[in-house]
Amino acid sequence: MIRVFLLDDHEVVRRGVAALLEAEDDIEVVGEAGTAESAIARIPALKPDVAVLDVRLPDGNGVDVCREVRSRMPELACLMLTSFADDEALFDAVMAGAAGYVLKQIHGSDLVGAVRTVASGQSLLDPQTTATMLQRLRDQAGKRDPLAALSEQERHILELIGEGLTNRQIGERLYLAEKTVKNYVSNLLSKLNMQRRTQAAALAARLKVDRGE
Fold first, then answer.
1. Beta 56-57 vs 50-54: how paired, if at all?
2. Please, are residues 138 and 115 in contact by the beta-carbon 8 Å criterion?
3. Does the record bear Amino-acid biosynthesis in its keywords (predicted)?
């Protein structure tokens, strides 16, 4: 028997989905909720196999519910249900650990099949969707903070290099010995995979523009 929990802020939708699922011999609806807060409180207590979660809720969203309950119940399969074909919500749902994502326009028999699919441990994400997710992750990785490896002091010194200050001037500004500044500059160039000070100055200038300064 597949134990299912339903989360949707529309009672009519919940009743319709519940009736549809309860008509199946192998599916049992063990609980319902109309808010994110209620779902987060009830799902761990009821221990369903599948949680059918509405993406948009009055007090949050199903993606956050998915992330929260799966942190406590990693074995739970979350099936996201929404009225909108929203790429952003789809990406967020996948990153939260959702096993599948279907639109409310789905045929009843297909929804039943979707519940059975995720309950069996399979994913409802088609190859095209998976490829899109992987590309998005790669794009995000490329946009990470280029200064992530630098310490706070090294970031400060990079900014001053961008302003055209010499090591001596930087030392005077930060109350450091010129040799100490030289070591900082050498370290930050190494961390940024740069050979020349001018490269660091160009990077600092570009970051300043990106910040709108």
1. unpaired
2. no
3. no
CA distances from 184 to 145, 169, 190, 200 (A): 19, 14, 10, 12
Q: How confident is the model at residue 195 (pLDDT cuts 50, 70, 90)?
A: confident
183 has pLDDT over 90: yes
User: What's the CA angle centered on 158, arms 152 and 162, to 5 degrees?
Assistant: 145
Phi, psi of 6 (to 5 degrees): -115, 135
H or E stretch at 62: helix 62-72
The percent of residues in the chain predicted with pLDDT above 70, rounded, is: 85
Q: What is the dihedral of CA 144, 148, 153, 157, to 10 degrees?
A: -50
The two beta strands, 2-7 and 50-54, are parallel
The DSSP code sequence of 134-201 is: HHHHHHHHHTS-TTTTS-HHHHHHHHHHHTT--HHHHHHHHT--HHHHHHHHHHHHHHTT-S-HHHHH
Between 87 and 30, residue with greater pLDDT: 30
Contacts (Cβ under 8 Å, ≥6 apart) of 57: 7, 9, 35, 36, 65
Indicate the helix (H) or strand (E) that contains 116: helix 108-119
Do the Cβ atoms of 181 and 167 come closer than 8 Å? yes
Q: Which pTM was predicted?
A: 0.62
- At 85, list the tokens: 């074909």
Contact 67, 96 (CB under 8 A): yes
- The answer to whether the beta carbons of residues 5 and 30 sit under 8 Å apart is yes
